[in-house]
Recover the amino acids of this structure.
């Protein structure tokens, strides 16, 4: 379908221009559509639902498969709709709620998509209030908060909760202000921030309020610096919320940006967008930056430009590669690969995928010692410690550090106390690095970057592990070492042990049932491995 996933040396001519990353065409949907939704499914596929084609609402839905860049139809909605919401449920199903079936009607119906069967089924009951241009937010409980929007008789304060266990809607406390075309952002606390929008008088709103699901209550918070609607709101990794663009109180499309800090409940101005825009797409990238793409500019002309906000780079904006096709009111979602799919917008069926990595490598200085079977560990300073390994014959004592600010290697680094290869090197919470094994005797040592010194652990490990073991930092700060064997030989260990940095010792722990080496060990969010 026209999606070329081969590596690129940089931005594609005519498909991105200059700037960070590049865009690739990703085939076309079966329908031109806007005011539709995109939802990333657990399978990695993307569900596109509804929208409008000219003034007609669509019932069609289709799936994008990033694995091969293909589009395929799936079951159609029971009610055509645009201006609806689509929310991924914890079960992997998708809840679609409200919207317009036509310019003169509003829907109260809600439907559930089952990706296993590709079919839709209505919820037990409908929304108590028909609405469109509302928001829908997945709460930590797995329930969905629907708030505001426009109903048959005007702008709504009404809010409702969908309970996926009962498959039905329940009433929630009303918002303080009726609003539509606002944003809703789930905060790290589990509360929901509602910001901006427009009122029944057409006034752009600067007010914001917070919903607490623990007690079903709404409380006011500080007003936005700039009243706005049609803006975006993105939760940053540090828990703050980035609000960008939209139209201001004078109906001008604005480049202004501000950030909400939930700790102090205030808004602060941030660096503005290079281009004012409304109805744009905003996606949080895996590295913590925010991609803003497309939208409508002054005169409500669709934009092809894109820009990236980097909170780690002083909160500035950097140009990103431009879209191949200008588009406003498109829908965008982050793919499992870390790329971004943007689809439709206006009378457009085409889609594009943004890759934030320009796909280029640049050479650095050479290592001071040629080596293999060594380790490389990112230090808290941002430098990289390379330790041990072997030349073609001998294990190495030497270590060196790569400095990314200069692109060079520092060779005046303390050597290991023992030559070793095929060891493990693990960054601990203290910023020190624990090196285990890589020789025939039980051995471990610790590197202190502040002192540039190595020392043996207070007591040696219980077992010798010359290769193939794993070392995992636990949530307690201890390090779990598991499995391994003799280099070139079979696995000999089902044994595990734990290094305790507080006591600088190796208390024995339980063992798995299976001998293994060259395996993997992954710390899960639960703290298990």
């Amino acid at each position: 379908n026209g999606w070329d996933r081969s590596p690129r040396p940089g931005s594609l001519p005519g498909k991105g221009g200059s700037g960070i990353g590049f865009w690739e065409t990703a085939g076309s949907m079966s329908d031109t559509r806007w005011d539709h939704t995109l939802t990333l499914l657990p399978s990695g596929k993307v569900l596109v639902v509804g929208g409008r084609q000219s003034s007609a609402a669509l019932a069609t839905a289709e799936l994008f498969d990033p694995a091969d860049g293909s589009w395929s139809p799936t079951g159609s909605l029971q009610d055509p709709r645009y201006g609806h919401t689509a929310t991924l449920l914890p079960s992997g199903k998708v809840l679609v709620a409200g919207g317009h079936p036509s310019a003169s009607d509003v829907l109260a119906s809600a439907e559930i998509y089952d990706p296993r069967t590709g079919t839709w089924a209505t919820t037990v009951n409908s929304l108590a209030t028909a609405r469109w241009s509302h928001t829908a937010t997945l709460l930590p409980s797995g329930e969905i908060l629907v708030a505001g929007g426009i109903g048959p008789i005007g702008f709504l304060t009404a809010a409702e909760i969908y309970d996926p266990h009962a498959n039905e809607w329940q009433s929630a406390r009303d918002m303080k202000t009726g609003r539509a075309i606002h944003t809703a952002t789930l905060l790290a606390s589990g509360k929901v921030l509602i910001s901006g929008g427009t009122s029944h008088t057409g006034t752009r709103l600067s007010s914001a309020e917070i919903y607490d699901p623990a007690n079903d209550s709404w409380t006011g918070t500080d007003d936005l610096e700039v009243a706005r609607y049609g803006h975006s709101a993105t939760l940053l990794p540090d828990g703050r919320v980035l609000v960008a663009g939209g139209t201001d109180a004078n109906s001008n499309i604005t480049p202004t940006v501000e950030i909400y800090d939930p700790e102090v409940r205030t808004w602060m101005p941030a660096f503005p967008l290079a281009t004012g825009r409304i109805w744009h797409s905003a996606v949080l990238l895996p590295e913590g930056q925010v991609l803003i793409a497309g939208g409508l500019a002054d005169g409500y002309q669709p934009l092809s430009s894109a820009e990236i906000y980097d909170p780690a780079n002083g909160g500035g904006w950097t140009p990103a590669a431009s879209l191949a096709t200008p588009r406003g009111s498109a829908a965008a979602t982050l793919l499992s690969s870390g790329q971004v799919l943007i689809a439709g917008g206006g009378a457009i069926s085409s889609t594009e995928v943004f890759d934030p990595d320009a796909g280029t490598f640049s050479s650095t200085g050479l290592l001071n010692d040629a080596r293999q079977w060594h380790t490389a560990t990112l230090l808290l300073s941002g430098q990289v410690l390379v330790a041990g390994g072997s030349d073609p014959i001998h294990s190495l004592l030497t270590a060196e550090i790569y400095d990314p600010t200069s692109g060079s290697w520092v060779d005046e680094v303390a050597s290991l106390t023992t030559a070793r290869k095929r060891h493990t090197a693990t960054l601990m919470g203290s910023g020190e690095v624990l090196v285990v094994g890589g020789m025939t005797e039980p051995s471990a040592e610790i590197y202190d970057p502040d002192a540039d010194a190595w020392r043996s652990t207070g007591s040696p490990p219980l077992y010798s592990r010359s290769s193939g073991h794993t070392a995992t930092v636990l949530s307690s700060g201890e390090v779990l070492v598991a499995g391994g064997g003799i280099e070139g030989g079979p696995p000999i260990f089902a044994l595990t042990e734990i290094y305790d940095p507080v006591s600088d010792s190796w208390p024995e722990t339980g063992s798995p049932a299976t001998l293994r080496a060259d395996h993997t060990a992954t710390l899960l969010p639960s703290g298990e491995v």
Summary: The CA atoms of residues 140 and 190 lie 6 Å apart. The chain has a mean pLDDT of 90.
